[in-house]
TrEMBL record, chain B:
Coiled coil: none annotated. Keywords: ATP-binding, Nucleotide-binding, Transport. It comes from Shimazuella alba. InterPro entries: AAA+_ATPase, ABC_transporter-like_ATP-bd, ABC_transporter_ATP-binding, P-loop_NTPase. It comes from the Bacteria. PANTHER family: ABC TRANSPORTER ATP-BINDING PROTEIN, ABC-TRANSPORT PROTEIN, ATP-BINDING COMPONENT. Residues 24-254 form the ABC transporter domain. GO terms for molecular function: ATP binding; ATP hydrolysis activity. This is ATP-binding cassette domain-containing protein. SUPFAM superfamilies: P-loop containing nucleoside triphosphate hydrolases. The keyword Translocase does not apply. The keyword Cell membrane does not apply.
Amino acid sequence: MLAMYREVIRIRFLMMLAYRVNYYSGIIIYSINIGAYVFLWQAVYGGKPSIEGFSAIQMATYIAVSWMARAFYYNNLDREIAEEIRDGSVAIQIIRPYSYLMVKVFQGFGEGLFRLLLFSVPGMIIVSFIYPIQLTADPIVWIQFLISLLFGFIVNVEVNLIVGLFAFFVLNNQGILWAKRFLVDLLSGLIIPISFFPSVLQKIFAFLPFQAISYIPSNTLVKGLSFDKWLPAIGVQFVWTIILAFICWGIWVKARRTLIVQGG
Amino acid sequence: MNAIQAEKLTKEFQIYQSRKGLSGAFRDLFNRNYRTIRAVNEVNISIPQGEMVGYIGENGAGKSTTIKMLTGILQPTSGDLKVNGFDPHNQREEFVKTIGVVFGQRSQLWWDIAVQESFTLLQKVYRVDNQKLLDRMIDVLNIGELLDQPVRKLSLGQRMRCELVASLIHQPSLLFLDEPTIGLDVLVKENIRQFLREMNKEFGTTILLTTHDLTDIEALCSRVIMLDKGNIIYDGDLTRLKQEWGEGKKIHLELDQEVSLSHLGQLTESLPVTWSKNEVNKNLFTAQLKGNSITASEVLSLLVTSGVPIHEMQIQEVSTEEIVRKIYQEG
């Protein structure tokens, strides 16, 4: 069982290597994004020492960390699933003795691992030379961050699975995919930290899974959350992984029953 | 235990019908019309272990739908189905370990990576470690040189041979082949058929083959099941199919001089033969023999003894192709 998933991860690694150009251009695009947001926020700060509990340096660090974290948790599983459903190749997946969803999760993990090691880590080093950011040297904070990052990955994958599986019911869910992508970037705190939103919106966001994807892990690293503040944050992420897992499973069971294989 | 046991297997689809024109499209936004289509209608199939069965029918007859139910991809609307002793849809993960599937139009190999990597992954997926069998299949199908190439660089024939190996890597007792030889050249076809015969003989692999190429069926299967509009219209021997539906042989004659049709008719009065004449070349005649009760030599001896000047002759057997065409046309 484990050997199989390890193999799935390895294959994904090989596939990522087959498309090296994507990888190089990705580093450039992410660096530009980070630069754009760092300068934007510098303008917003305009010499003020801190806004909403973020100092200017913390803000720059937050941006760099959350974009590099995005390289890890971001994947196109939703689009892949939708495509497989649309062209009917999902049939091939169903005749394999494994759980379709679990294999997708591990494919996403293989992709994430590839980018974490070959993209985020070198990218972070480059970025730390260019932009004024400050990373903690406390190993405990880093461990807290990595655990939180892993949960963020799982929540994001689950959201992707749910959105991708919608293709079973509507057969063309391109619009939903675009909307989701934008929503996740905005509501997860990638573009603006959650604490910058009006308090009414913050209360609403607390009931949504998105901040578990990016805001919680990035905040953990940048603010160096103490253990008693970190634990409830991780708890929120954990609860979301469980809830979303049930939703995924429910949709999958329903989808399998209504499956129509398109095209022959 | 039968490899496949289906009773009153039925699959219905809800098909969405769009209305005509712009106003119709607008109405469709709020209220859609659905129509139920019965793709497979109370079909009974039972196939014992080790048999090679051809499953044929026109496009849209419901073949693929049946295969998808038998492989657990689709859930039957109604009916009883046991394949290898499992309920394919509800016991999917256990069940699929016992079957192999090749969809001719769909690849089960990973497109961007070397063939060898796909095989390794499949071995892990099925938790098997039978390098010996794999090596032998690679040898028989002659794909040793392709192993380190990515699938996208393979030709259709090369890919199809790799697909076959991939589908048999876990030595399944039942193999579904959906148009495995579509678009392949004669040599590759023969290679694949030889390989399938070998697997069937050695491991007793049951094979259900859908194809439009009837030479595949003639080469491999002793039994055919024919489907039309979701119903089975024939299930049995290939030879019996020929006898029941075949029109008998044809004899094509080229004579040295023109002879009248009625003269030829008179000569062979005692036999069930009908004559026809080629409209362009006046010396060409065709005798259509009815049924299998008479032989070509009976006809010929009558002609020769009465002095008909035969220049050339050719006897044409009924091909399965022709029989099937006739069945399709008559419905």
